[in-house]
User: What shape does this take?
Amino acid sequence: MRTKIEKLDHFGRGITYINGKICFVDGALPLEDLKIKIVSETKKYSLADVDDYYTLSDDRCDVLCPYDNVCGGCNLLHLNFSGENKFKCMKVKEILKKFGNINEELVTDTISDSEYNYRNKITLHCDDNMLGYYRKGTKRIVPIEKCLLVDEEINKVIKVLNELIYDNDIDEVVIRVSNDSSEIMVSITGDISNYEELQNVVDVLEINNEIVLGDESIISNIGNKKYYVSSKSFFQVNKTLTEKLYNEVLDVIKKVQPKKVLDLYCGTGTIGIYISDCVDEVVGVDYSKSGIKDAKKNSLLNNVNNCSFICDKVENVIDSFNDIDMIIVDPPRAGLDDKTIENIKRINPKDIVYISCDPVTLGRDLKLFSDMYEVVIVKPYNMFPKTYHVENFVLLKRKK
Assistant: This one.
């Protein structure tokens, strides 16, 4: 049937209406006139694929990836970068308005950097001598030779791994590269005995949680700071835009000049250490043992002596803090729990920096802060190009 796309939903799917019911169309863009085929239907909505295009959007671009519509990793390969950034800005505005009652004028244009080769980490799965990503919506493997989103040094490792899978029984592979592409870490789970060729192209090799080559970490730079990154530690995957995001935090620090900062969900201590030169004290909290271990090592690596780190769940220790000038939170997608929000309000810092990878939970939490704090600005960061995901930087100030 023929139809016209009205807009994109928050997952990057085209939206049209068939017989008064909403229909989501993969691979379609706003204002496109096309022929669709319904592939799934419920009482509330339909899912459709495109059979033919009659009119194309000016924002449509050539798809460079050979795994489009097969691999489940990317959603926006057909949308040009300018259109993608506009989509993510509008998405953030709509979601924060709906869930947080945030004025759209507080949301800036999307901040972006590299469109491709931006990822410093990749996770691959292996089955039946095939190494790759999961097929869209399944656990079946899409074998890949290279990925356009990752650092080219990672693609070199993928090429070697594809030659090794026939001699080994590999389950999963995690490949990390330092932000300057100088060091590579590979972590493998499975039954593997032949890995000589891999040793020639990586700096750290971990097999079934045992280091067989190099140290337990690689060193990655963000700005003028260096960080140890081990296989299980959280570290921002965008190798270039992360520095811009952290500079955003640093600019706020320099402007408001807090003395004591609480860094919740601190991971490997990246943000706390990054701002340490401009504050008297930083206390970081994270539940990851490997992350906190790296955070403490990172303090020594950068000759920082005003950062301390606690390994525990945030909700377990948040009620022990007082006299904090600023709180930085960078929680997982679930956002902040009620106890953490209540205690942040009890601590009553002058400023809160909220970094979020999920606009829905962000909006929910901002609404819960709205009785005591006002949102000063929201800046979407396109940390995950070619996907519908978007990171957000939010500054909140205590109401007078």
Summary: The chain is about 25% helix and 30% strand. The first helix runs from residue 81 to 100. The chain has a mean pLDDT of 94. The first strand starts at residue 2 and ends at 4.
